[in-house]
């Protein structure tokens, strides 16, 4: 991972943030750009992946669970919530980047354009606009607000089930030790996790990527 200059932590306070991509969906299977609410359900495999998260995260001390307004993230976090006895907080701000005019398209040209634009945001070109959708600045701002709300609760560790492009772009722009080139070269498979430590004021550091 390419290093950047690390900022000092405000008052030494750091939290752990586990960003988790949702399980496999029916739209994943057909390669469709499914970003609108409520979105597709998990497949049988996706539900199995969600169940396996319980075992994979058994050594993580998690204080709070969060999901997006898209149903696939809520279905993914449900087994973990049951196992930990935790309620799930729902945030619209951490959902996938809006595909705009590309919504539910699955042709190579549309999918490649979506990826190109979101990865351009990860590289710092946040003024670029998704056709019929947001700019990178607008997309990142809503994700920032949601993460800020989560951090403001004061928990030591929050697990957030979100979406692949959103996680990769946001981490590239807000972590101090990875960049857009790294996140573009390291896509996240369904239910893979990115572990960060830090805070919204001083930035985040990636402890683990894609486990």
From TrEMBL:
Xref: InterPro entries: His_Pase_superF_clade-1, His_PPase_superfam, PG/BPGM_mutase_AS, PGM_Phosphatase
Top-level taxon in the UniProt lineage: Bacteria
SUPFAM superfamilies (alphabetical): Phosphoglycerate mutase-like
Gene3D superfamilies: Phosphoglycerate mutase-like
PROSITE patterns named in the record: PG_MUTASE
Pfam families cross-referenced by the UniProt entry: His_Phos_1 (PF00300)
Family matches, as PANTHER family: BROAD-SPECIFICITY PHOSPHATASE YOR283W-RELATED (PTHR48100), PE-PGRS FAMILY PROTEIN PE_PGRS11 (PTHR48100:SF58)
Protein name, per record: Histidine phosphatase family protein
Species this protein is from: Kineosporia mesophila
